[in-house]
Amino acid sequence: MRNRLxxxxxxxxxxxxxxxVVAACDDTSSNGAPRYGGQNAGVAVLTQPATLSDLRExxxxxxxxxxxxxxxxxxETSGRVTAVNIDADSTVQTGDLLLQLDDRDExxxxxxxxxQLADAERLVKRYITVNIQxxxxxxxxxxxxxxxxxxxxxxxxxxxxxxxxRRITAPFSGRVGITEIDVGDRIDTNTLVTTIDDRxxxxxxxxxxxxxxxxxxxxxxxxxxxWDAADAPVSGEIVAVDSRIDIxxxxxxxxxxIDNASDRFRPGMAFEISLNASRGIFLxxxxxxxxxxxxxxxxxxxxxxxxxxxxxxxxxxxxxxVLIEGDVQTGELVVMEGVxxxxxxxxxxxxxxxxxxxxxxxxxxxxxxxxxG
Length: 373
What we know:
By secondary structure, the protein is an alpha+beta fold.
């Protein structure tokens, strides 16, 4: 089939040349002298209108996943461990107790602060009662008693904070990691207790070339698959884009979010990110229409029946077409075959491609019959 199509194309070119020669020979003046170059008959060409095409490219990059929320849990104070409630890879809720430190001193401190606050409040009440009866307590002394109440209240709150620091709890809901701590161990603020990950959604950072800076934005859909797996990709979307371009790589960082409600993936996995991005809308012309001259690429267009040369810049080559930029309007007829005979200002005779293909088939028939015979 491909050979047949190629043969048709060759035959079309030959027929176009033949049509041009015949037109030149037939184009004679009334006295039998041919007109100059046969221009009045026109150069036989095939044309195709320039169309708009969206240049879309598939970008592929690799990134490492991280959890939506992730934390390494450390103790806020030193002490001896009295309880460990950590079951690796189990679900914990916000506020669940993970680890308990010895808190006997802190419990006593809270009780003492409570007693001191109650004593200070009783003293203030006593002063107020006395003043109501005989007004013998100076106002300054009453102010000092009230200040003592405020100090005692602050001391009680501080004691409660110190007590609360003996309990290490989950800051948010997620999956708890492995711990190396046992009951009886003594830990300090540099001891890693465990990790917690909210992996209901995974985030993957990846690099994008700077040319797509205004194309890859929040909400852009992506396909995500494990780097070394043959599983079908899952859908995701861009949730964040970096604010600057890396001057070394000429790229920027985009962040994709993957729904992991099924808990199929884990933070730290390597993922391949694929997205279909548009570089813009460009004019599309047949690849055979593009010619090259001393000043670069150009095409011939049919303008009021005559050939006009338009300089163009090639954007990208596609299968059978070229995306261009230049002084060519959408819908203008671009010469795609017969360009060898076209000159600036030449009269054009636009032929129908269907007719040429029919002529090519007819021209092949005798040869085919002879070969079969």
